Amino acid sequence: MMNRDNEPIRSSSAADNDIGRAIARTITLIGFILLEYIRSGRIWIEIGAMLACYIALLRGEPVIGVEPEHFFLTSGLFLLGLTIYTVSTVVSLGDRIQGYLILSRRVGRVGYLLGLYGSAIVILVTMYITLALITSLFSGIAGLGLNGWVLGTLPLLLNVGLLAALLLMLSPLVFATGWRLLVLFLIALAFSSNFLGSATVETLNPTIQSLLRGVQTILSWPLVPAFSGFALSLSRDVQRQCAGHPGGPGIAAGRTALAGDLCVFPP
Description:
Helix content: over 70%
Number of helices: 13
Radius of gyration: 22 Å
Mean pLDDT: 76
């Protein structure tokens, strides 16, 4: 069939086949990047950091074990730091002349970026699961069952995904320098309440104070799921989060976006 411009009309099955081939090419690209990452020896830095985290911070008494709150707090902070390194390394691995040759083999820009993102996520999730297994086998995590581990793990991995996406967005592969500086400025403005003391803010014009607080409130909303997820991983109490009670340190009272989503599917 032809459309009004005498161009062939593609059937839905052909479009579905194109989507399937694009997904298959992206998965193949993820495997290629992971293989290159392992062959280059970069993976040993993640492995060494994971073992150092366990030996220094999570090697508790075999009989007593590690407290769940301590495990999720330590592993959460460790994952955030490791995400910054891993995503930066994967992006530098992809931002090479050899990497651009893949773009000529029917892998578009979006698929290329998704391949880099997926590779970093696979590495980070593997390191976290390995750290959890080592801790549970050699030290033990007191009173933590499979259900509690899943409730504490999902928010941490969601935070890793958010941070990895932000770091990829700020890379030269996505944004130009001007846009990256703008995003960094907005992030700094969202956190400016932590840097500007109340005495400094009080010296400003009342109109400027109102504008500054309004901008800080608006820009801080995208950060709510990340902080809420971190607190939810420590408390692992979705029902109490749904009821609007503070589940742990670092979370404001009331429902949050992440806790609200989990309330739809209570454990």
